[in-house]
């Protein structure tokens, strides 16, 4: 994993299939108690969007590795007053060993990374959420002991989660189906990129038919129908997305041993029912826990832990 030291993670497409599997293997080892310290290293968190799991899991991961965390809240830094990202990146690069950024525009993340030498981690943009998918893949691997040949169906908005799942599944040999309304399907260029990565490794299907996509699937995955910044359209989306709700009927079409995942926070009764979320096939809480282990492994790799 030495090849990852000092690298950025702006998208899962930044990793090779071997590198991704290496991070997942280390995440499993860390969950079992393996320690790879990064003493005296400092991680900055620059979040312009709200966060619970990402903020806390990155902080705890860094502390458990022996490092420190600085919360760079835009409201109390010059970022909030309009300092150019290029300038902020050059300055913070002199202080920090790595930074995780949660923001709206992927371009802002890329601008920051272009002006900094330290590892820059995508902690969520409107385009991608790679760290979540690291935890998702770890959770799937825990349940099925392997990834290749499984089928994951994602229901709902073709958003940043759909984009990162497409790339993560393509890299690991998981067949992926995105079931979304016609006007809410994932970006064509991301689908094309995933197909290029997948080659013959996995199948990628984009459809509007939720029931057909659920049939025989090993993993049913969903996310909120309106992401952060889309609250004004939340009510109008409900009629369009109701056929994509993950409920007992949809789950009944899946493989007998299928599991259910949700990246959280959830709107129970909208994209997923309370019954399914709390049911025996839900692995949502394991998935949330694995944010800690997957990100700890990622940090260890990028920071060159001993």
TrEMBL record:
EC code: 2.1.3.3
Binding site for carbamoyl phosphate: 51-54, 78, 102, 129-132, 263-264, 291
Segments forming domain Aspartate/ornithine carbamoyltransferase Asp/Orn-binding: 149-301
Residues that, per the record, bind L-ornithine: 160, 223, 227-228
GO biological process, one term: citrulline biosynthetic process
Main location group: cytoplasm
Compartmental location: Cytoplasm
Any Pfam family: OTCace_N
Gene3D superfamilies documented for this protein: Aspartate/ornithine carbamoyltransferase
Catalytic activity field: carbamoyl phosphate + L-ornithine = L-citrulline + phosphate + H(+)
Pathway participation: Amino-acid biosynthesis; L-arginine biosynthesis; L-arginine from L-ornithine and carbamoyl phosphate: step 1/3
SUPFAM superfamilies: Aspartate/ornithine carbamoyltransferase
Alphabetic keyword roster: Amino-acid biosynthesis, Arginine biosynthesis, Cytoplasm, Transferase
Domain of life: Bacteria
Aspartate/ornithine carbamoyltransferase carbamoyl-P binding domain ranges (all copies): 7-142
GO molecular function, one term: ornithine carbamoyltransferase activity
Record-level GO cellular component terms: cytoplasm
PANTHER family: ORNITHINE CARBAMOYLTRANSFERASE, MITOCHONDRIAL, ORNITHINE TRANSCARBAMYLASE, MITOCHONDRIAL
Family: Belongs to the aspartate/ornithine carbamoyltransferase superfamily. OTCase family.
Protein name: Ornithine carbamoyltransferase
């Amino acid at each position: 994993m030495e090849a990852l030291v000092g690298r950025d993670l702006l998208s899962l497409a930044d990793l090779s299939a071997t590198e991704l599997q290496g991070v997942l293997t280390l995440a499993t080892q860390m969950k079992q108690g393996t320690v790879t310290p990064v003493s005296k290293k400092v991680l900055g968190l620059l979040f312009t969007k709200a966060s619970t799991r990402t903020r806390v899991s990155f902080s705890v991961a860094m502390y458990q590795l022996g490092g420190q965390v600085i919360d760079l809240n835009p409201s109390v830094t010059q970022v909030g007053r309009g300092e150019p990202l290029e300038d902020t990146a050059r300055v913070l690069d002199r202080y920090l060993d790595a930074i995780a950024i949660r923001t709206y525009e992927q371009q802002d993340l890329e601008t920051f990374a272009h002006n900094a030498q330290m590892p820059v981690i995508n902690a969520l943009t409107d385009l991608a959420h790679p760290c979540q998918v690291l935890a998702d893949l770890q959770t799937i691997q825990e349940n099925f002991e392997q990834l290749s040949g499984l089928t994951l169906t994602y229901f709902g908005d073709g958003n940043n989660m759909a984009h990162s799942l497409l790339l993560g599944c393509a890299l690991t040999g998981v067949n992926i189906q995105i079931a979304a309304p016609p006007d809410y399907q994932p970006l064509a260029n991301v689908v094309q990129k995933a197909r290029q990565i997948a080659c013959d490794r996995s199948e990628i299907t984009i459809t509007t038919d939720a029931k057909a996509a659920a049939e025989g699937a090993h993993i049913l995955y969903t996310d909120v129908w309106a992401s952060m910044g889309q609250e004004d359209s939340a009510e109008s989306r409900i009629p369009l997305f109701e056929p994509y709700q993950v409920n007992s009927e949809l789950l009944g079409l899946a493989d007998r041993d299928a599991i259910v995942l949700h990246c959280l926070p959830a709107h129970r009764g909208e994209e997923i029912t309370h019954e399914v979320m709390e049911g025996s096939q839900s692995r949502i809480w394991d998935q949330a826990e694995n944010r800690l282990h997957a990100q700890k492994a990622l940090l260890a790799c990028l920071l060159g832990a001993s």
